[in-house]
């Protein structure tokens, strides 16, 4: 039900008072310690010298790499070399055609060799057609899981009238999906609830796959064993700037969380704080996001270790954000939430750019220079409008962290 004009005025005043309180809080210094870096040669500051490293020949990551040898990854081998990992996807029944396209690409390039199980999630029961057609695309085990209502429903502390008013404001600022409640629910679930599903209790690693994505390059090593053998926590392909209008209080809430000594001590000494706070390349983004660069790993592709999400640091951080309400009153996405947490609480050297995995989620690409790849243009970042190229935040990641 629409609110009357006096109530809207009161809501606006309340919002201004909230922003004022945030600004007052920010005057209290919080010790945010960025790590020390090597020489300027290792971490070039010259943004004008940026050349997409995908133009250079791309090799596989360094050894050790686990490969197919005989039947060691056979789907029916109870003693296979697979570890406790799954490919997972949050998908609706109506997205079946788009999902089949994604499955076919990933099966062709990777999983027909390694046969890791697929786990599908939906807030509604899957149809028999969905089960029949997806299971026909893979020789691997397939599981179909429904999200518990308590993980998907809007939390009791969210005021739905305020949600509608907030969505109107977001829409005025051209923030996409502002009024789509299910999108807000999806972002919250992907941020801090997916790994709590009972179906994932025995898994440690996951590869997130969405409908309507493409994979272009043959992957001849076990990516999950790579993560384990090389002590990696998180892998990405694309690194972007977010819409600052969608998350103006996310960084202030993060600062608020870190204000206590106990939470501040959760920060990793080898963090990526400088990447999170950079304001040189997109100063307006930093200003509108109140100190956050808005750089994030585009989480429609992520290969991760769920032990990080299950850690004390992340659980406490997510609980703080969840109670703050920004998943509904703003449009906090799982990509910036995951990225900020990784940038604060994890060793930056445990975050890996999978430069050798060719990938597209419209309108962006990761397209390596490799004979293993076909179907994408080497070094192309986007096939959309030219202005989309400035959304690439990889230069900042490579500047502050490197290409490990």
From TrEMBL:
Regions of compositional bias (Basic and acidic residues) in chain numbering: 42-54
GO cellular component, one term: membrane
Region (Disordered): 33-81
A Pfam family matched in the record: Glyco_transf_15
Glycosyltransferase in keyword set: yes
Domain of life per record: Eukaryota
Active site: 302
GO molecular function list: alpha-1,2-mannosyltransferase activity
Listed GO biological process terms: cell wall mannoprotein biosynthetic process; protein N-linked glycosylation; protein O-linked glycosylation
Keyword tags: Glycosyltransferase, Transferase
Alphabetical list of Gene3D superfamilies matching this protein: Spore Coat Polysaccharide Biosynthesis Protein SpsA, Chain A
This protein's record includes keyword Transferase: yes
Family in the record: Belongs to the glycosyltransferase 15 family.
Protein name as catalogued: Glycosyltransferase family 15 protein
Species this protein is from: Viridothelium virens (Speckled blister lichen)
